[in-house]
Design goal:
It contains 23 helices and 10 strands. The chain has helices spanning 4-13, 20-23, 40-47, 53-60, 63-70, 81-84, 93-121, 126-151, 160-166, 176-193, 205-218, 222-235, 246-249, 278-282, 302-305, 314-318, 337-343, 398-410, 419-431, 442-452, 459-464, 468-476, 503-508, and strands spanning 75-77, 259-263, 298-300, 319-320, 325-326, 347-348, 367-368, 384-385, 388-389, 393-397. Strands 1-3 form a two-stranded antiparallel ribbon. Strands 2-10 form a two-stranded antiparallel sheet. The radius of gyration is 23 Å and the shape is globular. Residues 85-217 form the SusD-like N-terminal domain.
Length: 521
């Protein structure tokens, strides 16, 4: 029996199920291809680990916020100031965390692909093995897409077993164009092998088509981006949900009709590693209770707040500001009579009263509502256990497909009045309570993407893909300061368009410090 047969069971045994109906499975201790992976349930139990919060944890918890929203100017923080001011180094904790998470997920995908292919070659059922292999290709392709956007040139590893046995760990960086090409090839394999439909939360062909459209847009391949987005739109399988805020704050809305791909979370038993950890980092300090931690590590930036158009409903769905209310939330604290009296009739965000009376006054006079589930079940919100909530983290949703289609139709032109592109854009605006546009430019699209996907870790990549000159202009216009003092970036240079390789990785693999080389010969 080949040693690679054991890797998948070992990887999977480190992870627990995210949702009883979705990915429950038995222990894989001692698993080999000879005694396991004999039916769809066993195989889907293994691939379910790729959706779990456990392998994604070190990316989605803080690294996603620091890279995608702090660096893009959407969030203010006193913690990750190196991302706020573009002074980060290769020793940054978030860089190392994201890199480690991504390559761990790739490692799991690699091992599963090899294991399932060997099982299939040994006579295993293609009907359940092929879709599982396609799931792994989707995850591997998506993660390499993230890596290419984050670091640019990067290593590509497809067989960790072979690498380990060879003893040669000096893997070079490959050209970003080749990393993107590899990611696209993976997504094409996923598209070919995934089913048309599956249970909510599982990947389908349309998940792959949607991620491909996003990758094509990043490459400025507008024709293919438009075509793939249109295939998703024409499928009739997706729609915008009316409860925008609930999509991020209510576990009952996990895997809704807007979601094409989400990291799956749970809140039952011991949630460590499987719960959503965004709750305390975003929660207003005056919502901390015995059930829910809240220390507002990240808050909305002043620059983002001024981006919202008058009447945009996404502002109150995404941001807490003075006067924001939730009558269902009634947090209470021990030995806090003033606080308890203030909160007794429902939560009101107040920047005028003192903290002991229930008020909150931070650097930007605001807090993030998106992904904050609330003060706890006893106090009228979704269940929260300390730092954990049960809300999935959405990585691709239908609103993105609509805006990709609109931008791909624009295709670099100054503006467009294309009817179908306008219909896609205006569907997103209509949910937000805004009037329809009769034409749009790239800046209109970037505005829409910024407010639609605020605090979802995506806006940095929208800035980056504009190229250095425009990215620099966009960043230098942003006020990254506080209510008591503005802060503008005046030293943005081209080397800051991508993150540095983690210092520890270069020590272990000196090839990573050298110029990139082609992956495809």
């Amino acid at each position: 029996m080949k040693r690679t047969f054991l890797y998948c069971g070992l990887a999977a045994s480190l992870l627990t199920a995210c949702n009883k109906e979705f990915i429950d499975r038995p222990s894989l201790s001692g698993t080999t291809t000879g005694n396991y992976y004999n039916n769809a349930e066993e195989v889907r139990g293994a691939t379910s680990t790729l959706y779990s919060g456990l392998p994604w944890r070190n990316y989605e918890s803080r690294a996603q916020d620091a890279i995608g929203d702090v660096m893009s100017g959407n969030m203010f923080t006193y913690t990750d100031v190196e991302y706020l001011n573009f002074t980060l180094s290769s020793a940054s904790e978030r860089i190392g965390a994201a890199w480690g998470a991504f390559y761990k997920i790739i490692g799991y995908s690699n091992v599963m692909i090899k294991t399932f292919e060997e099982k299939k070659a040994a006579g295993g059922g293609a009907a359940y093995l092929d879709p599982a292999i396609a799931e792994c290709h989707f995850i591997r392709g998506t993660v390499y897409f993230y890596i290419a956007r984050t670091w640019g040139h990067a290593p590509i590893i497809t067989d960790p077993g072979e690498t380990a046995l060879s003893g040669n760990f000096n893997i070079p960086r490959y050209l970003q164009s080749d990393v993107l090409r590899f990611a696209l090839e993976e997504l094409k394999l996923a598209e070919a092998g995934l089913p048309e439909s599956d249970v909510p939360g599982r990947l389908t062909k349309y998940s792959a088509k949607g991620m491909m459209s996003k990758l094509y847009l990043y490459q400025k391949d507008y024709a293919n981006a438009k075509a793939k987005a249109e295939e998703v739109m024409n499928s009739g399988k997706y729609n915008l949900v009316s409860d925008y805020n609930g999509m991020f704050t209510k576990s009952s809305m996990n895997n809704n009709e807007e979601c094409l791909f989400s990291i799956q979370h749970q809140l039952s038993g011991d949630p460590w590693g499987t719960g959503n950890l965004k709750n305390p980092d975003r929660g207003a300090a005056n919502l901390r209770t015995a059930e829910a931690d809240a220390w507002e590590m990240y808050v909305p930036s002043l620059d983002l707040l001024k981006e919202y158009e008058f009447g945009d409903l996404r502002r109150k769905w995404s941001v807490m500001e003075h006067g924001w209310t939730n009558p269902n939330w009634k947090p209470q604290r021990v030995n806090a009579p003033k606080y308890n009296a203030f909160m007794a009739n429902g939560f009101k965000y107040d920047t005028l009263v003192s903290a002991d009376e229930g008020g909150n006054l931070n650097a930007t006079r605001s807090n993030i509502a998106k992904y904050f589930a609330g003060p706890g079940k006893s106090f009228g919100s979704d269940a929260v256990l300390g730092q954990n909530s049960g809300n999935n983290v959405v990585l691709l949703r239908y609103a993105d497909i609509l805006l990709i289609y609109a931008e791909a139709t624009l295709a670099g032109a100054a503006s467009t009045t294309d009817a179908k592109a306008l219909a896609a854009l205006n569907k997103v605006r209509a949910r937000a309570g805004l009037s329809p546009r009769t034409s749009f430019t790239i800046d209109d699209i970037l505005h829409e993407r910024r407010v639609e996907f605020a605090f979802e870790g995506d806006y940095w990549y929208d800035i980056q893909r504009q190229g250095f000159a425009k990215a620099k202009a966009m960043i230098q216009k942003q006020n990254r300061g506080t209510a008591t003092g503005a802060n503008y970036i005046t030293t943005f240079t081209e080397d800051k368009m991508y993150l540095p390789i983690p210092a520890g990785e270069i020590i272990q693999d000196p090839e990573l410090a050298k110029d990139p080389v082609p992956y495809y010969k």
